[in-house]
From TrEMBL:
UniProt-annotated location(s): Cell outer membrane
Signal peptide feature range: 1-21
The SusD-like N-terminal domain, residue ranges: 113-239
Gene3D superfamilies: 1.25.40.390
Cited Pfam families: SusD-like_3, SusD_RagB
UniProt KW Signal keyword: yes
Family from the record: Belongs to the SusD family.
Annotated protein name in UniProt: RagB/SusD domain-containing protein
Length: 578
């Protein structure tokens, strides 16, 4: 997919996204040099439009209102990972990085504003994608007998629209949910929808996509396209998110907003149905997309990321490109990789949670060579460039020569393009998450972990290290600090709570830097405790930037960009607390 129709796609994307200075991020007024009569005439037109939506997943820059450019902060080129990782127990912004970029400090302190650059860019970038997907689907719906190719393009557009709406509702709460393109709602300002309505749209889009899309694309040029397996995986993730937000997030009163815009009471009332849906579609992913239940064991963790790309564990990723004035995927490495800007880097908390931990020297804590017999291989792939103080404790991420980064986003120069870096595909969905979703949903449905739930989480652990490093979890050892590092401030009472905490910790170790931690923490209901206590025991008693986080109830949601609220004349309501 990297080169298919590339020049035409880039031109079309630019033309469709060029907007007037009065335009909202929702694109209710879109100006283009192409009329509607010139678009969506042939099957190739739909294909080109679809490729344009895919390209926007990781576009280097998108033109928006006032002639501005979203640059690297929109969508998956930086913005989505940053919003999903800053202000978490696994990642933070270094003092050096945040001192140069105020928007990072705001996010990492849980004190963002509606003017925050990343908050605005991601919101706008997701709606730019939604608007273009809406246009494709809307025009296809007017056809009396669309051919099989157009039906597939519609299904792919629905998957991408669902992904965008999932990102928006997870980060901002109930958002404006529309299936109409901007050209069909000129002059209309739509209010925010409830979380229930947004999730209804997500679920329907993904079920439609699952029923239509192929299980895989075997041709290299088609890599990165949505499949039925990807639709099932995203549906499992979204169902679990909704169910746990309803059960544990505690969104009540003013935070829910007038009319229940941010309320998850509906999810609480549908708890069993949502957990069942999460488990059902996770099961479909495993059975329909992979050879056997234990397939993950044959997929080395480090081979799910650059330089190993498009490998079997990856269910859906964003395909980046190079060869332009500035590379696309290289910006992910610039944010979090070795020799990066240190905008988002691992905390000491996660570094000291990987096994082995607690060593007084780098050799004890980071054995070389790393093997499954002496190290959690996720540690080997993810954590780089540590240094120790004389007393054996880790240096904090303060001085640039002592910071540490995520190895999975290491960048390298491209020989043919000496001023660029090689792009990384950004992994959005992969098999390991499906195992953990299955385990969590099963435990919730049975009011505690079953033998099957333990087996699924242990597949993930066994893939990462041998039993002497990561013993199999079971009912008897969930309390053993040598097996699971205790989390300060949280004292689980029931086996279900202990298992949920084990899953939360496993997800931290498995998915660091992949843009899903903030949502995981919020839906657990333990965000405040995790952020209040993270690193207290790891970095003496010094208060570093990420130790000054001020998580409050309203921090569950990010603010709606101020401009959207202002130009809507109050129709779009701001989130409580902002």
């Amino acid at each position: 997919m990297k080169n298919k129709l590339l020049n035409q796609v880039l031109l079309l994307t630019f033309l469709i996204l060029s907007v007037s200075c009065e335009t909202s991020f929702l694109d209710e007024k879109v100006t283009t040099s192409l009329s509607k009569d010139q678009l969506y005439k042939k099957t190739a037109d739909y294909e080109m439009a679809l490729m344009g939506v895919y390209d926007m997943l990781g576009a280097r820059s998108l033109p928006i209102m006032d002639g501005g450019i979203l640059n690297y902060l929109c969508n998956y080129n930086g913005g989505v990972p940053l919003l999903g990782e800053l202000a978490t127990d696994e990642m933070c912004s270094s003092a050096a990085g945040a001192s140069k970029q105020l928007f990072l400090e705001e996010l990492d302190k849980c004190k963002s504003t509606g003017q925050n650059t990343i908050v605005k860019s991601v919101y706008a970038g997701q709606y730019a994608m939604i608007n273009q997907a809406n246009a494709l689907i809307f025009n296809a719906d007017k056809l009396s007998e669309p051919n099989s190719a157009i039906k597939q393009y519609v299904a792919e557009a629905k998957f991408l629209r669902a992904l965008c709406y999932y990102n928006l509702v997870s980060l901002y709460g109930g958002v404006v949910c529309t299936t109409l393109p901007g050209s069909e709602r000129v002059g209309t300002v739509l209010p925010r929808s409830s979380t229930e309505k947004v999730y209804e749209q997500i679920f329907q889009d993904l079920k439609d996509a699952y029923a239509t899309l192929p299980k895989s694309f075997a041709v290299e040029k088609e890599f990165g396209r949505a499949t039925s397996v990807a639709a099932a995986a995203l549906l499992a993730r979204a169902s679990l998110t909704a169910a746990t937000m309803g059960k544990y997030a505690g969104i009540t009163g003013e935070l829910a907003l007038e009319g229940g815009i941010n309320s998850y009471e509906w999810a609480r009332n549908m708890e069993k149905e949502l957990f069942t849906q999460a488990k059902t579609y996770a099961d479909k992913v495993i059975k329909e997309g992979f050879s056997s239940e234990d397939a993950l064991l044959s997929m080395p963790y480090e081979q799910s990321f650059y330089p190993y790309e498009n490998t079997v564990e990856v269910i859906f990723d964003v395909q980046f490109q190079y060869g332009f004035s500035q590379s696309e995927g290289g910006w992910v490495g610039r944010i979090s990789g070795p020799d990066s800007w240190n905008w988002a880097i691992p905390t000491g908390n996660i570094a000291n949670t990987y096994m082995p931990f607690g060593g007084k020297t780098i050799g004890e804590n980071f054995p070389t060579p790393a093997t499954k017999a002496n190290c959690d291989m996720r540690k080997y792939k993810n954590i780089t460039s540590f240094k120790y103080k004389g007393n054996g404790t880790l240096w904090p991420p303060l001085a640039t020569d002592k910071t540490y980064n995520i190895g999975k986003y290491a960048v390298e120069k491209v020989k043919d393009y000496p001023n660029q870096e090689h792009p990384h595909n950004f992994v959005v969905l992969r098999l390991a998450e499906i195992y953990l979703i299955w385990a969590e949903a099963d435990a919730e449905l049975n009011n505690g972990p079953t033998v099957d739930a333990y087996r699924m989480i242990n597949y993930v652990r066994r893939r990462a290290a041998d039993a002497n490093i990561l013993p199999d979890l079971n009912r008897e050892n969930l309390d053993d600090p040598a097996v699971l590092k205790p989390i300060l401030g949280i004292t689980p009472q029931t086996e279900l709570e202990k298992f949920r905490l084990a899953l939360l910790q496993e997800r931290m170790l498995e998915f660091v830097g992949e843009g899903i931690r903030k949502v995981d923490m919020i839906r657990s209901g333990w965000s405040a405790e995790l952020l209040e206590n993270v690193n207290v025991s790891d970095y003496d008693e010094v208060k570093y930037l990420y130790m000054r986080r001020m998580f409050e109830e309203y921090s569950i949601f990010l603010p709606i960009p101020s401009r959207e609220v202002t130009i809507s004349n109050g129709i779009i309501i701001q989130n409580y607390g902002y």
